[in-house]
Design brief:
Oligomer: homodimer
Shape of chain A: globular
Largest interface: A-B, 27 and 27 residues
Radius of gyration of chain A: 17 Å
Number of helices of chain A: 4
Strand content of chain A: 35-45%
Chain lengths: 174, 174
């Protein structure tokens, strides 16, 4: 007689809505601290952040709420693309979030150009099975923005970048 | 021979740009903790948040980053106006920030309707001279948005609401 929905226990602590968000989840052979350093140290970030042949030419990071997260990226022959966003949450070794819809210092920004949609990206790092259970969510305002972001090879790109991170950080182990 | 700028020591810890932001600063006869409770307890907030004859009919507050800050306001005869925003920073007794440009859970929101401009509001509470040095900044993306917000009697409205807060919180003292 009853009619009820069965909810799966979420495996990831980050809220996300399938119709609006892109989602990435992996078990990673790095510690949460190693992943945190790879994400928040600019000298490390430029070495893994973009899947080859894209390159991250510059990175600037002030890993605290309101801080700057800026990157300058380029393809082998393409123009440089700058991302200048604002850190929203920064819990060392646990959680990191930022948005392109604010400038540093919590300043709102109107994004209405071509391909210039607002997003919030949030990451979680959880110690599990000797490594890290890693989740990443990119949240959008509309399904169309989700589609536009997805068309940029989100899943494949994040996977390739993560592989570069693992190689880099394992290579740095004493 | 030298030519140099004289910078005044900032009296307020909140970054703000005069051309883009609205700014409010007062010495208040409440403790930082009293001001924090007035801002973050919905049962208190509905009693002071809107300058009479406006009223706050409902308030909802989850005072942590990503939490909900929702209010329902109405004039004596006017329609109700809902504000549903996202908390950005919450340091009890010290600092509070939220934005209307995100839904709770750090979800971006596109604001492009009439009078629907994005802002970030940030407050600081600093114990000083037996009371609180209180700063409030409303940050905007453009000078036009600052003007639109200012035309809503920002300074006068915030001053009148603050007076209501002081009366309320002093009256609650044991």
């Amino acid at each position: 007689m009853g009619h009820f929905a069965v909810r799966e226990k979420p495996v990831c602590p980050l809220n996300h809505v399938p119709a609006l968000d892109l989602y990435f989840e992996r078990q990673v052979d790095l510690t949460p601290d190693e992943m945190w350093r790879a994400w928040t140290n600019p000298a490390l970030m430029v070495q893994w952040f973009t899947p080859a042949p894209l390159r991250t030419l510059e990175a600037e990071m002030d890993a605290r709420p309101g801080g700057r997260f800026r990157t300058m990226m380029a393809g082998p022959e393409g123009p440089t693309v700058e991302g200048d966003g604002c850190v929203l949450a920064a819990e060392p070794g646990a959680r990191f979030a930022w948005t392109n819809a604010m400038r540093p210092g919590f300043r709102p920004l109107v994004l209405n150009g071509e391909g210039d949609f607002p997003f919030v990206a949030e990451l979680s790092f959880e110690s599990r099975d000797g490594g890290t259970h890693y989740c990443a969510v990119a949240r959008h305002a509309t399904p169309e923005d989700r589609e536009r972001h997805g068309a940029m090879n989100f899943e494949e790109g994040w996977g390739a970048a993560l592989a570069q991170m693992v190689t880099l950080m394992q290579g740095l182990r004493g």
